[in-house]
Design a protein that fits this description.
Layout (H helix, E strand, L loop, with lengths): L4 H17 L2 H10 L6 E2 L4 E2 L6 H30 L9 H15 L3 H14 L1
Antiparallel strand pairs: 1-2
Length: 125
């Protein structure tokens, strides 16, 4: 799976948000309670069938983000081609916002989550 600068910065924005909202102590409790009380696990709060390491959580979360990013990029490129325009999130802020929103909403559908991740991503870039 391909990672470019934009998808990488989205990974960091989501990782920072998730890590801030689930500090190490909380994640330790979740790991002990998993899967009875916790439905997600690790720094990236991914769904898993069994207990996983923090690095595995980051790997799984990153893969999910890159997949959502690639899907959104493909959809946007197809729509742009239909309209005869060039889709470029690196030079067009509206295009970047579309990708930010698509990826954050794929990771967590909550509107406030999406807003905060987009704000954090803006700060990162």
């Amino acid at each position: 799976v391909s990672v470019d600068a934009l998808s990488e910065s989205l990974i960091y924005a989501i990782l920072l948000y998730e890590n801030f909202n689930r500090p190490r102590l909380v994640r330790l409790i979740e790991k002990l309670a998993f899967p009875h009380l916790a439905r997600t696990i690790g720094p990236m709060q991914v769904k898993a069938e069994k207990r996983i390491s923090d690095s595995e959580s980051v790997r799984l979360g990153s893969s999910k983000i890159v997949g959502a990013y690639c899907n959104a990029l493909q959809l946007a490129n197809e729509k742009a081609l239909e309209k005869g325009v060039d889709f470029n999130p690196f030079t067009n802020s509206f295009h970047m916002r579309f990708l930010e929103y698509s990826v954050a909403a794929d990771y967590n559908k909550d509107n406030s989550y999406v807003d905060v991740v987009m704000e954090m991503h803006d700060q990162l870039i």
